[in-house]
Design brief:
- The chain has 23 helices and 8 strands.
- β4, α5 and β5 form a beta-alpha-beta unit.
- By secondary structure, the chain is of the alpha/beta class.
- It has a 4-stranded parallel sheet, sandwiched between helices.
- 50% of the residues are buried.
- α13 packs across α21.
- The termini are far apart.
- The chain is globular, with a radius of gyration of 22 Å.
- The protein folds into 2 domains: 172 residues, Rossmann fold (3-Layer(aba) Sandwich); 194 residues, Dehydroquinate synthase-like, alpha domain.
Length: 441
């Protein structure tokens, strides 16, 4: 398989990985995940074994075309494949953008994406709509390549769409090592959200019996600690450190394959990032998904540590939906959707009292399993800084007031219960944000 650095990734593809403790084996959607120091000269072989006899379009943008797309297209052409290329001038993973992509690639039987977030998710969603196959040559070490979902914007509202996964995912570490340092830092920032996403999901499970699975975390644990310990080496283009980051990102993306949900890697921190994307308008800082998730992860981690390290549990009251404020800030239609989502998880007085009893009867026993999956805030922050990540809203280019709004209202975007809900229903979220993200935060 040429799986030089893949290890557990190759075992998963071959159906050979056995989960410790259960012995269970899993089938994952990708038929091929190759992770190697270099794939130069192997492009045609890799594509042919997944798309033999298909007419192809290599899809890239202007930057990823220069980084790898031109090379991939030339290799497939030289091999005699029926292939053209589409260099997308202004890619957008939105309903309109994907229609543009579909029109430009109409008539082909399979798409070969060369790029990262926007290109990958756009090709993924277009392939679903047109019932076509696709594979991807990544140009950054992010998580989205191995997921079977695409994040698509419809009239400004970002939605996660269930899609077919890629048939082949081909990581050329020599290419990834040359991608902008900002993208490598963003990829690191995106995957360290494991700590906050797992804690929020486990919290929801313990309070409401939300379905929960350890499988993705057992896989992530293989590389996570070493990846964090070697964060500074990522800035030097170290191939071994980059391989760890890429494996963690790939496994993070495969979480849906083991759980049937994106909960394993997307909770409060992602809702904060979505708020920035959905409601910043012309004032958007121009930051990427990973960068935003990273700073949101730092904020949520601090909140987790603050609440769980306290001597006594928070005391909740029934959820109060600020409908008038939501309408004023976001308009009637968006406010209605936010109210609908939040109503699915809102606590009435009886539920708030039940939760208070569950936490308060034995706070030590309740918080112990949550603390076991939580990284100390300082370790997380220091590792992110070592990898070159932004860790504060100011570094992200977001004002303190804008960040307080994003974090304070993120809970209303989706029906997923998180520590944001705990803190807000306990009347502590506003004070936390003022303390840590004041006027100059």
């Amino acid at each position: 398989m040429g799986d030089d650095y893949g290890g557990v990734i190759g075992a998963l593809v071959r159906g050979e990985w056995e989960e410790p403790g259960t012995g269970r084996r899993y089938t994952i959607p990708p038929e091929d995940i190759v992770l190697a120091a270099s794939l130069e000269g192997r492009e045609a072989e890799l594509v042919r074994r997944r798309h033999e006899g298909r007419s192809l379009v290599v899809v890239s943008d202007e930057r990823t075309h220069e980084a790898l797309g031109r090379r991939v297209h030339a290799a497939l052409k030289a091999d005699g494949m029926d292939v053209t290329e589409f260099v997308w001038a202004s890619p957008s993973c939105s309903d309109r953008g994907v229609e543009e992509l579909r029109a430009a690639t109409r008539g082909s039987e399979a798409l070969i994406a060369v790029g990262s977030g926007t290109i990958n998710d756009s090709v993924k969603y277009a392939s679903l709509l047109d019932r076509r196959e696709y594979s991807v040559f990544p140009t950054s070490p992010m998580t989205a390549y191995t997921t079977n979902t695409a994040s698509v914007s419809f009239d400004g509202f970002k939605t996660s769409i269930a899609c077919r996964g890629a048939k082949g995912i081909f990581f050329d570490l020599s290419v990834l090592s040359r991608c902008p340092a900002r993208l490598i830092a963003a990829a690191f920032a995106d995957v360290v959200c494991r700590t906050t996403a797992q804690l929020d999901w486990l919290l929801s499970h313990r309070l409401f019996d939300t379905p929960y699975a350890e499988t993705p975390y057992r896989l992530l644990a293989i590389d996570e600690a070493a990846m964090i310990d070697n964060a500074s080496r990522l800035r030097d283009g170290d191939i071994a450190a980059l391989a760890m980051l890429t494996r963690v990102g790939a496994i993070m993306g495969l979480g849906t394959s083991f759980t049937g949900t994106t909960h394993s890697g997307s909770m409060a921190e992602h809702m904060i990032s979505h708020h920035i994307d959905m409601f910043s308008g012309d004032d958007h800082p121009g930051t990427s998904h990973g960068e935003q998730v990273g700073v949101a992860t730092a904020t949520v981690s601090r909140l987790h540590n603050t609440i769980l390290n306290a001597a006594a549990p928070p005391v909740l009251h029934a959820t109060r939906l600020p409908e008038a404020r939501l309408r004023q800030r976001y308009g009637a239609d968006m406010a209605r959707m936010m109210v609908e989502q939040t109503s699915l998880k809102a606590l009435d007085e009886a539920e708030a009292e039940r939760v208070n009893r569950l936490m308060g009867d034995d706070w030590e026993a309740f918080r112990a399993p949550l603390c076991r999956v939580m990284l100390p805030f300082e370790r997380l922050r220091d590792a992110m800084r070592a990898a070159g990540c932004q860790t504060t809203p100011g570094e992200l280019g977001v004002s303190g007031s804008r960040w307080r709004e994003a974090v304070g209202d993120a809970r209303y975007i989706r029906d997923r219960f998180s520590m944001l809900d705990i803190a807000d229903d306990a009347g502590r979220l506003s004070g936390f944000l003022t303390e840590h993200h004041g006027a100059h935060g």
